[in-house]
UniProtKB/TrEMBL annotation:
Xref: InterPro entries: Glyco_hydro_28, PbH1, Pectin_lyas_fold, Pectin_lyase_fold/virulence
Keyword annotations of the record: Cell wall, Cell wall biogenesis/degradation, Glycosidase, Hydrolase, Secreted, Signal
Main location: secreted
MF-aspect GO terms: hydrolase activity, hydrolyzing O-glycosyl compounds
Active site: 237
Protein name as it appears in the record: Pectin lyase-like superfamily protein
Organism: Forsythia ovata
Stated family: Belongs to the glycosyl hydrolase 28 family.
GO biological process: cell wall organization
Keyword Cell wall biogenesis/degradation: yes
Length: 397
């Protein structure tokens, strides 16, 4: 009798809170240290068809995965709980679809990815073959995790490691949060951007650590409302809007908020880059950078409208992209090069309404005094600037 009294309320609670149904990949033939492409696809198919919330579990072991595309829409919220490690083949020529990504998730509403596990791209071999910076006909390496048209979703407490190319690609998504998300790859791994986010709206990257060989977060065209808060970057190339302008059909970028972030030993801190001699006439507006710590960052604050790596373009016709409504406030720390701030704006469409306030950056090296570089920009200043910013602006073109 006592027993019943104790447990009735608990049972009622379980029924009421509608525990998600569990779809363990083991049930679908997924075994540790073996390939789980089919098991994961079968589990996804059933979980996605369920009319109540479902959770797919990849248990605390190591599994091998060649390539999967998980497609919605699903009938109810769906969670992919990765507790263990999912490993890519180290030889990327083994991938069934050479133009595809490693794990692609498309058209899902209310997706959760969680579990504390690792997506291991095993990129070490592929990085040695990546010459895409120099060779336009290079072999395109697959992305690790590709999210397309995902809405109202959260990806938290998982790690993506040693991707062969960008770690995460976010396109056409809306209201998606990455939290306690870890990206881990060596500083010398090629083209391994942490998150590349474009053509999306309402994306949040919070409380995350991104260590990689290329951009920590790169923002592509058509991005609206991106909030990056309490993210630590480094090694890597920093948080970058762009490069933009190369494609004639690119869309405007608006509402980028970077707050309470730390950059450790990165090549850049915050950066906006656009191509000269490029067709796109875009606007980049509402960029806000606040409360940021730079720890030994080579180029802490950069606008580069003459971005032209490997001499892939000509500098004679300026970028047609207009940068405006930008604030850069409370940036502290150390620069690893003497140029602490570099604002190189377009001669055709100068930067407008850029507000700079409370900069406190020191240079500890011996390549001369700390300086700033400013062309085609007249920032409004608030608070204190150390070093003085655009002090030589009268001489700039
Ligand atoms: C955004 O997504 C989260 C997570 O699914 C959800 O809780 C929230 O209600 C969504 N916000 C809006 C405005 O739909
Ligand atoms: C954000 O940065 C400000 C200024 O450095 C600091 O006062 C505040 O505590 C930080 N907030 C968080 C949540 O880290
Ligand atoms: C982003 C990325 O490159 N992901 C890698 C993750 O692992 C797969 C497995 O082949 C690699 O192919 C991907 O390149």
């Amino acid at each position: 009798m006592k027993f019943t009294l104790l447990f009735l309320p608990l049972l009622a609670h379980i029924v009421n809170s509608q525990q998600p149904a569990i779809f363990d990949i083991g049930t679908y033939g997924g075994k540790p240290n073996a390939n789980i492409d089919e098991a994961l696809l079968s589990a996804w198919k059933e979980a996605c068809a369920a009319t109540t919330p479902s959770t797919i579990v990849v248990p605390r072991d190591t599994y091998l995965l060649n390539q999967v595309t998980l497609v919605g829409p699903c009938k109810a919220p769906i969670e992919l709980q990765v507790q263990g490690t999912i490993k890519a083949p180290s030889d990327y020529t083994q991938l069934p679809d050479k133009n595809g990504q490693w794990i692609t998730i498309n058209y899902v509403d209310h997706l959760t990815i969680s579990g504390g596990g690792i997506f291991d791209g095993q990129g070490k071999e592929a990085w040695t073959k990546n010459d895409c910076g120099k060779n336009p006909n290079c072999v395109k390496l697959p992305l690790n995790l590709s999210f397309n048209f995902i809405t109202n979703s959260i990806i938290h407490d998982v790690t993506t490691k040693d991707s062969k190319n960008f770690h995460v690609n976010v396109i056409g998504c809306k209201n998606v949060t990455f939290q306690h998300f870890t990206v881990s790859a060596p500083g010398d791994s090629l083209n391994t951007d942490g998150l590349h986010i474009a053509k999306s709206e309402g994306i949040y990257v919070l409380d995350s650590v991104i260590q990689t060989g290329d951009d920590c977060i790169s923002v592509g065209d058509g991005m609206k409302e991106l909030h990056i808060e309490r993210v630590t970057c480094g090694p890597g190339h920093g948080i970058s809007v762009g490069s933009l302008g190369k494609g004639a059909t690119e869309e405007d970028v608006t509402g980028i908020y970077v707050k309470n972030c730390t950059f450790i030993g990165t090549q850049n801190g915050i950066r906006v880059k656009t191509w000269p001699s490029a067709p796109a006439k875009l606007k980049i507006t509402d960029l806000h950078y606040e409360d940021i710590i730079m720890d030994n960052v080579e180029n802490p604050i950069v606008i580069d409208q003459e971005y032209c790596p490997w001499n892939q373009c000509k500098l004679d016709s300026p970028s047609l992209i207009k940068i405006s409504q930008m604030t850069v406030k409370n940036i502290k720390g150390t620069s690893a090069s003497p140029v602490a701030v570099s604002f190189v704006c377009s001669k055709t469409v100068p930067c407008e309404n850029v507000e700079v306030g409370d900069i406190d950056l020191a240079y500890n090296g011996n390549q001369g005094p700390i300086t700033t570089k400013c062309t085609n920009i007249k920032p409004n200043f608030v608070g204190k600037q150390n070093p003085p910013i655009c002090a030589n602006a009268a001489h700039s073109s």
